[in-house]
């Protein structure tokens, strides 16, 4: 292979990059509203249990495949295969994840572009440019294309610089900034009228709901999808980890950061919604459920910020910068999947591969923008509700049924020589073989 791969230069760099990939818009707006709609702290409790008992083992499978293969998702899986049909299966799973990542990025960049335009809007208002501010928060073809292209340009810029100088360096800058902004916003919202009711709704458990099937399925889906499973991202990130690192510990640390930031996001979003209610903003839909998704982020919260007066402009700026950072840390991982494949399988220079693939995804994004009414939901559903669970399930099948147990053990022992005597090794192999594929299949069936 004629291309220099690069790799993460430090444990902290990998943790920030992997956590950045896992922490995205779904954590910031999806987790909090699911929590409020599914029994408050009961959902949080179930989510935490499932994140470590089911999502973490699947996450470890992808990391191990990547570090063993030391290559892109397709090549890593094919190195494990022992015959022709297994190699073909490995190609389908690895390439399927790459396609899934590209599809997610195509619609993700549109929503991230909206976040950026909403972040600039308060600055325009502070500068007295009312007309420009109104344009920034109103849907138009030109605005959508312009900010989608701007966001994709930032993603391309980072990935062109490679693993250490691009992904690692920017993740180490952006993730601490994201966590700092999140904590500052939580502290501020806590001082406002209505916040305490929101904290109570978020943290007061309704234990009777813990075993509700819909709550369990929702929590399981949130745990799997928030860790970027099924997109080839963690396979490629795993391939950049040094052999001396303890993968069991690293995987647990990334999972812990991911669920912690999701929990913190809930501490911000839910109380903020109740603050908005105290100011006369409607936060419940007609069916009695809390407003969630894009309506929450682009309708309820902006109404809250407007009601705060001048200080609301600064809070709005901080919040949408936070959302933009969360989107960027995820988008760079999604672009790295297809780029690493083209760079390594076709011996293409990284800068050239990144630019052409990024522009290709941007063209698809523009096509979605032009047909926004139906295509955005279609691509989002296709990639996240169908693509991700299927690929994640097949990755577990690959690790559990095709990869020799002795080979897996020798790979883990390179960074943890006593692992075979640990609780992890006593549980993880059969968990990945039987429990994880079944659980992901259950999520997929429910999504249908």
UniProtKB/TrEMBL annotation:
The chain crosses the membrane at residues 12-32, 44-68, 89-120, 140-162, 174-195, 215-242, 254-276, 313-335, 355-374, 386-403, 423-445. PANTHER family: TRANSPORTER. InterPro entries: Na/ntran_symport, SNS_sf, YocR/YhdH-like. Keywords: Membrane, Transmembrane, Transmembrane helix, Transport. Signal peptide: none annotated. PROSITE patterns: NA_NEUROTRAN_SYMP_3. GO terms for cellular component: membrane. It is a multi-pass membrane protein. Its main location: membrane. The keyword Cytoplasm does not apply. It is found in: Membrane. The keyword NAD does not apply. This is Sodium-dependent symporter family protein. It comes from the Bacteria.
């Amino acid at each position: 292979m004629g291309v220099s791969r690069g790799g993460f230069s430090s444990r902290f760099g990998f943790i920030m990059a992997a956590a950045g990939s896992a922490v995205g818009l779904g954590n910031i707006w999806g987790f909090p509203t699911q929590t409020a709609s599914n029994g408050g702290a009961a959902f949080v409790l179930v989510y935490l249990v499932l994140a470590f008992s089911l999502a973490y083992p699947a996450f470890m499978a992808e990391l191990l495949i990547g570090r063993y293969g030391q290559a892109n998702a397709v090549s890593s899986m094919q190195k494990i295969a022992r015959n022709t049909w297994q190699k073909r299966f490995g190609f389908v799973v690895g390439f399927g994840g790459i396609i899934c990542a590209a599809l997610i990025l195509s619609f993700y960049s549109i929503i991230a572009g909206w976040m950026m335009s909403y972040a600039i809007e308060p600055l325009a208002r502070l500068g007295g440019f009312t007309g420009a501010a109104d344009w920034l928060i109103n849907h138009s073809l030109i605005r959508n294309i312009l900010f989608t292209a701007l966001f994709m340009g930032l993603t391309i810029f980072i990935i062109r610089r490679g693993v250490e100088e691009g992904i690692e360096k920017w993740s180490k800058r952006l993730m601490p900034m994201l966590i700092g902004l999140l904590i500052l916003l939580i502290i501020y919202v806590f001082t406002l009228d209505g916040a305490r009711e929101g904290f109570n709704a978020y943290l007061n458990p309704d234990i009777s709901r813990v075993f509700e099937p819909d709550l369990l399925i929702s929590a399981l889906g949130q745990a799997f999808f928030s860790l970027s499973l099924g997109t080839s991202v963690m396979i490629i990130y795993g391939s950049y980890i040094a052999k001396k690192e303890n993968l069991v510990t690293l995987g647990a640390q990334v999972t812990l950061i991911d669920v912690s930031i999701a929990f913190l996001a809930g501490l911000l979003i839910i109380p903020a919604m109740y603050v908005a209610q105290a100011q006369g903003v409607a936060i419940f839909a007609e069916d009695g459920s809390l407003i969630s998704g894009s309506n929450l982020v682009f309708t309820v919260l902006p109404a809250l910020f407007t009601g705060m007066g001048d200080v609301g402009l600064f809070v709005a700026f901080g919040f949408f910068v936070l959302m933009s950072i969360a989107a960027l840390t995820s988008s760079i991982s999604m672009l790295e999947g297809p780029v690493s494949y083209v760079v390594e399988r076709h011996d293409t220079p990284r800068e050239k591969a990144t630019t052409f693939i990024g522009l290709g995804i941007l063209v698809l994004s523009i096509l979605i923008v032009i047909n926004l009414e139906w295509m955005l939901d279609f691509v989002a559903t296709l990639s996240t509700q169908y693509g991700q669970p299927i690929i994640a399930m097949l990755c577990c099948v690959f690790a559990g049924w095709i990869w020799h147990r002795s080979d897996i053990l020798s790979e883990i022992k390179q960074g943890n020589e006593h692992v075979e005597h640990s609780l992890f090794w006593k549980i993880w192999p059969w968990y990945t073989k039987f429990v994880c594929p079944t659980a992901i299949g259950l999520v997929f069936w429910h999504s249908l």
